[in-house]
Design goal:
This protein has helices at 27-32, 85-94, 102-115, 123-134, 140-167, 173-187, 195-206, 212-240, 246-261, 268-279, 285-298, 305-316, 319-330, 344-349, 363-371, 396-412, 415-421, 431-444, 454-464, 498-506, 520-536, 545-554, 601-609, 612-617, 619-633, 641-654; strands at residues 2-4, 7-9, 19-24, 34-39, 45-50, 59-63, 70-76, 477-478, 484-485, 537-539, 564-569, 579-583, 586-590, 597-600. With 660 residues, the chain is α+β, with helices and mostly antiparallel strands. The two termini are 43 Å apart.
Length: 660
């Protein structure tokens, strides 16, 4: 790792040919100065000298290793000598009407981690703070700086996983650097130079234990980088093909853009000719396959995207099926299909050497690539992944196809491939990637619906959409007992909806992922539903958020980091104003006309094991006995005490074996 001399400047007029890096700098380092490690697009590590009192958008010039010229690091930070952003955000947190007092503490703790440029494991609390800040009355410039910092904390998770995995890999240093550099290109929203390195990177992230939201943000960004690379290849081939005159170039480019964007074709005969020209050319196999998938999806409108993914994988694993599929789609037989030896295996191993934004010339190339697909890239003046994922307005069909190819390439990898990359065989799955792309496609049309319920529904939707920062307008409906608006505030920045705030806040007090085997959550999921059915008994992550938020606001007060695993609604109006909750620590209940009460599992099970005479002679134990009786009486009116006792007995018998 080499040190880089840094010269700060504040001008925003940058040379477009200069390599640029957007770097988030922790608060203290921005204030006092110091060194910060960054990864270059070459995969090399370099230490930047951060001057003291570095402010937002300070440009730090440095020399690239090996006399490759000068580059610029654009600094981002929550440090500000005049605005005191932390004070403003803390005040907004304090002024927010939360249903639990602990929510303020959680939000402030998360902000400190964001400010310090640390990866945050508690993503539900981070999303709550995101919503509080974004729907506040703070100045838009403050909101933008906070959301950039929030996104940075997520990207640190990906970077940590990639670096730790490669550290245990069998790859050479050059190949490790290539993969690290590829991540920087994806992070910058720019075309990649090696398709194989991108597939390896995809596999590392997919097989990791990163939360689904972060994996999904990466999946979409990776698909965009693959698509922008293919777009450059195809546009360059069309723009520079000596066989075409200027009128043909314009016509073919217009036809290709319709295919790329998934629009209605104005001249199908012309597109059919384009199919044959592209798929029989000598261009990249990645470009051919992604174009073919895009065209096939154009012809299967209305089919579930997940079904398309699985059908695609199956077809492309078998050469004969591929030929049949191509004949069916194009009506031109196998002549439009790449040679058998150059299918997925070739696409997974090829490079994209020489592909760069600067490799194209002319207005057609700029319009075809930068405006539609690369508008958010660092090279085009954007922030890349640091700016948050945006629902595509152009190139959606091509990006979706690039994502499908990524899934297929991962599915082709075997155990030896994973071991070479440092991935533990058997970890992770590509199954969820199809869901990600399906949700992303739905998000592009702003028509997301869910079949899940409770915290799982909103969590899955927010995750699949890449977090709060990608919604660009419209309404997203999610099932959670009853449908409710998630949010659509990135354009026009709508005012806070207290109902949505309560739903988002409630998620931090209950698990939002499916329970692990042999856990307390999985035991409750089996037993609560079995004993109470879907009308009264609910377990995480499918507890209706409207019910749980009511219970939290009316009678549940949780300890720090305590989470609700199950809810039994005993209220007359089915509004959860009375009932029982089982948390990861206690049983809490509220009977009609009585005050809320609770008892820890250890105390309850000790009580169940005690002799009655011992209970009666001990005043404290007699009190416990009376409280448990009240708990049981909650269900006596409907003759439910037997099944309740059965749940408690089973829970007691299995409790010690659970990893709570």
């Amino acid at each position: 790792m080499q040190p880089a001399l840094a010269e700060p400047e504040t001008t925003t007029s940058l040379d477009l040919d200069t390599e640029k890096y957007h770097v988030f700098i922790p608060y203290v380092r921005s204030r006092t100065g110091g060194k910060q490690e960054i990864t270059l697009r070459s995969g090399e590590k370099l230490e930047l000298n951060i001057p003291a009192r570095t402010t937002e958008n300070t440009n730090i010039r440095f020399q690239l290793p090996g006399r490759r010229g000068e580059a610029i690091a654009i600094a981002h930070t929550l440090y500000d000598r005049t605005l005191r952003l932390a004070d403003q955000i803390y005040q907004e947190i304090d002024n927010t009407s939360f249903i639990q007092d602990a929510s303020k503490t959680k939000c402030k703790l998360v902000y400190e981690q964001v400010e310090d440029a640390r990866y945050i494991n508690d993503l539900t609390s981070l999303q709550l703070l995101d919503y509080v800040v974004e729907t506040s009355r703070l100045d838009d410039s403050v909101k933008d700086r906070y959301l950039l910092a929030s996104t940075n904390s997520r990207l640190l998770g990906i970077q940590n996983v990639v670096e730790s995995t490669l550290a245990t890999s069998r790859l050479s240093q050059d190949k490790r650097q290539l993969i690290l550099g590829t991540f920087e290109l994806v992070r910058a929203g720019e075309p990649i130079t090696d398709f194989k390195a991108l597939s390896d990177l995809d596999s590392i992230v997919t097989a990791s234990q990163l939360p689904p939201e972060i994996q999904n943000e990466y999946t979409i960004a990776s698909a965009k980088s693959r698509a922008i690379t293919v777009d450059l290849i195809l546009v360059k081939w069309l723009d520079e093909n000596p066989k075409f005159d200027e009128n043909q170039k314009i016509a073919y480019l217009m036809a290709y853009q319709e295919v790329r964007d998934g629009r209605e074709l104005s001249n199908e005969d012309l597109v059919n000719d384009l199919d044959d020209l592209i798929l029989t050319s000598k261009i990249s196999d990645n470009a051919k396959l992604i174009y073919a998938i895009t065209r096939q999806n154009n012809r299967t409108e209305g089919q579930d995207l997940g079904e398309q993914v699985m059908a695609f994988i199956q077809d492309y694993q078998d050469v004969e099926n591929l030929k049949k599929s191509a004949k069916k789609v194009y009506g031109k037989g196998a002549s439009v299909v790449p040679q058998a030896t150059r299918l997925l295996s070739a696409a997974g191993a090829e490079t994209a050497t020489g592909v760069s934004l600067s490799s194209l010339s002319g207005a057609a190339a700029t319009n075809a690539t930068l405006a539609a697909l690369g508008g958010g890239s660092v090279a085009a003046g954007g922030l890349g992944m640091l700016g948050g994922l945006v629902v595509a307005t152009g190139g959606a069909a091509l990006i979706g196809a690039a994502g499908l190819l990524s899934i297929a390439l991962i599915s082709e990898m075997d155990g030896e491939d994973f071991r070479n990359l440092g991935i533990s065989v058997g970890t992770g799955t590509v199954a969820g990637a199809a869901t990600v792309l399906a949700a992303w496609t739905a998000a592009s049309t702003l028509g997301v619906t869910g079949t899940l319920s409770g915290a799982a529904a909103i969590s899955a939707t927010i995750s699949a959409l890449g977090g709060l920062s990608i919604m660009t307008g419209g309404a997203a409906l999610v099932a959670s007992g009853t449908a409710f608006l998630v949010w659509s505030f990135m354009k026009g920045r709508k005012k806070r909806d207290q109902g949505i705030l309560r739903q988002v806040e409630t998620r931090i007090y209950t698990p939002t992922e499916e329970p692990k085997p042999n856990s307390l959550e999985s035991f409750l999921a089996d037993n609560i539903l079995d004993q109470y059915g879907k009308e009264e008994g609910f377990t995480s992550p499918n507890i209706p958020l409207d019910k749980l938020s009511t219970a939290l606001s009316k009678w549940i007060t949780l300890e720090p980091n305590e989470r609700v695993l199950a809810l039994i609604d005993s209220s007359f109006w089915d509004d959860a104003k009375e009932g029982v909750v089982l948390t990861d620590r206690k049983i809490r209940w509220k009977a009609f006309g009585s005050n809320p009460d609770s008892i820890s599992y250890d105390r309850l099970f000790s009580l169940m094991d005690s002799d009655l005479s011992n209970l009666l002679i001990n005043e404290e134990r007699r009190d416990d006995l009376g409280r448990v009786e009240e708990l049981t009486n909650i269900f006596s009116e409907d003759n439910d005490e037997d099944r309740w006792v059965q749940v408690l007995t089973s829970l007691k018998q299995q409790y010690t074996s659970f990893s709570v």
